[in-house]
Specification:
With 278 residues, the protein is α+β, with helices and mostly antiparallel strands. Helix content is 42%, strand content 10%. The longest helix is centred in the middle third of the chain and has 19 residues.
């Protein structure tokens, strides 16, 4: 199977201080927990939690991980919290190009191949494309080649005026869907690179409905991605796979985004264009 691989380092979340207490407080406030609510969730006293946040008490390693779990802190930031508290990191962060990640790469390739003849991509938490299957070019056909070089960001590629945007029939609806998803990612991670990306995407045109173009029908089960194609309109519904039990940061931050046919004609077209996995 042919894939495009450009595995890079994740950009760390911006946190103003390295002290564990301040990191804990920032995550608690971000998740909208009072000290009392978090203490009850984690089964510790509010007084102890207050001492930990202020630096008057050092938490155990088990408590750091317990608090991070209740606050839904990403694995990479959990490592940072552990280091700030004086403990070794708990989770590995090997790049997919490293020798010890061979099995992971093979698993991702099998998953992407399994979606053929439908397009599927592996993405990191910054929406950089890490790998793709053979059917993805049906989505990227006609985009400016400069958007497909180096580390390719899937959201920039989609909404850029020289990317997919001119081919997206329901651009206002799809743009709104993408911006909502990115805003949700920002709420969960507070990643500055995603905040910057959101501002960039908002600056692109396409926020208003074009005359005569239908966004989606009330009978649709989800907002489809509808693309113009020389042989007719292609309609897709996106499906996201996450690795919920991952204990490696790289895998935990990864998603597989598949574009499944939303109608019979799209399914027939893709089956005719792309062979299933060999």
């Amino acid at each position: 199977m042919e894939t495009t691989l450009d595995f890079g380092h994740h950009r760390p979340m911006e946190i103003e201080t390295s002290s564990f207490g301040m990191q804990l407080r920032q995550w608690r406030v971000r998740r909208r927990f009072t000290q009392l609510a978090l203490a009850l969730e984690a089964d510790i006293s509010q007084r102890h939690l207050s001492f930990v946040e202020s630096g008057r008490s050092k938490p155990s390693r088990e408590m750091v991980l317990r608090l991070a779990e209740h606050l839904r802190v990403p694995l990479g930031e959990q490592n940072r919290m552990l280091v700030a508290a004086g403990y070794a990191p708990a989770y590995g962060d090997g790049l997919l190009t490293s020798p010890d990640m061979v099995r992971t790469r093979e698993m991702i390739d099998r998953l992407l191949a399994g979606y053929q003849p439908y397009p599927a991509l592996a993405l990191d938490r910054s929406w950089t494309i890490l790998a793709m299957n053979k059917a993805v070019p049906v989505l990227t056909e006609g985009v400016d080649p400069t958007l497909l070089t180096g580390q390719v960001n899937a959201l920039r590629l989609t909404l850029h005026p020289q990317g997919l945007a001119p081919r997206i029939v329901n651009l206002p609806a799809w743009r709104s869907h993408i911006l909502r998803r990115l805003s949700h990612d920002i709420e969960l991670s507070a990643d500055q690179s995603l905040i910057d990306l959101l501002e960039e995407l908002k600056s692109y045109p396409g926020g208003h409905r074009a005359a005569g173009r239908v966004a989606y029908q009330p009978s649709d089960i989800a907002v489809p991605l509808v693309l113009d194609h020389p042989r007719g309109q292609l309609s897709f519904i996106s499906a996201t796979t996450i690795f919920g039990t991952a204990v490696n940061i790289t895998l935990a931050d990864m998603v597989v985004e598949a574009f499944l046919p939303a109608d019979g004609w799209t399914a027939e077209f893709l089956r005719g264009e792309f062979d299933p996995v060999d």
